[in-house]
Design a protein that fits this description.
Pfam families: FxsA
Keywords: Membrane, Transmembrane, Transmembrane helix
Helix content: 55-70%
Transmembrane segments: 26-46, 71-90
Number of helices: 5
Radius of gyration: 25 Å
Distance between the termini: 33 Å
Strand content: under 5%
Region (Disordered): 126-184
Number of strands: 0
Structural class: mainly alpha
Protein name: UPF0716 protein FxsA
Length: 184
């Protein structure tokens, strides 16, 4: 965590130094125009690549397949676009490179391996919130740990899972899901 804090602290100074150094060599207006041009081109490229990633996700999900370009790729497109909006040469180079599909595939593979390694080591944890109730009781609460009136539990449809229950709306389906074997 400290290394990210140090990076966030030093990056603006490095960017400022590069802007001043390049500005001295080529002049103020060319430096400003390059920074503005990379911001415009980068935002256009981020929009195009983001649309392409979303279209591929939508097409894959419509055919009930797992998208080849996962969440990491979409997150890298967003990060690349964000870095291009930050004025500076270093962030522009990193942002533009993240918008290129071959670079994204390389970074995604590295990120995936790092996450898998952390999951195997047990140092990567996923926290979810499930269920409708709360573990309560909470201080000052007159009844048990649920925010819902007790009478609501009486209205829940009964019956075997996986079928439309009688008395339930036709739009309500209680289903069970299983995981398929991973595709390689």
């Amino acid at each position: 965590m400290f290394k990210y804090f140090l990076l966030a602290l030093t990056l603006p100074f490095v960017e400022l130094y590069l802007l001043v150094a390049i500005g001295r060599e080529v002049g103020f207006l060319p430096t400003l125009s390059v920074v503005l041009l990379t911001g415009l081109v980068g935002s256009w490229l981020a929009r195009r690549e983001g649309s392409r990633v979303m279209r591929r996700w939508r097409d894959a999900l419509a055919t009930r397949q797992v998208p080849e370009e996962g969440l990491f790729s979409g997150a890298l497109v967003m990060l690349g676009g964000l870095l291009l909006l930050v004025p500076g040469f270093l962030t522009d180079v990193v942002g533009l490179s993240l918008l290129l599909p071959p670079v994204r595939r390389f970074v995604t593979a590295r990120l995936r391996r790092a996450v898998e390694r952390r999951m195997r080591d047990g140092s990567f944890q996923v926290t979810t919130m499930g269920g409708m109730g709360f573990p309560g009781p909470f201080p000052g609460e007159p009844r048990g740990g649920t925010p819902f009136p007790e009478s609501w539990s009486d209205t829940a449809p009964k019956g075997p899972p996986g079928r439309i229950r009688s008395g339930a709306s036709r739009a309500e389906v209680d289903a069970e899901f299983t995981e398929d074997e991973p595709r390689h």
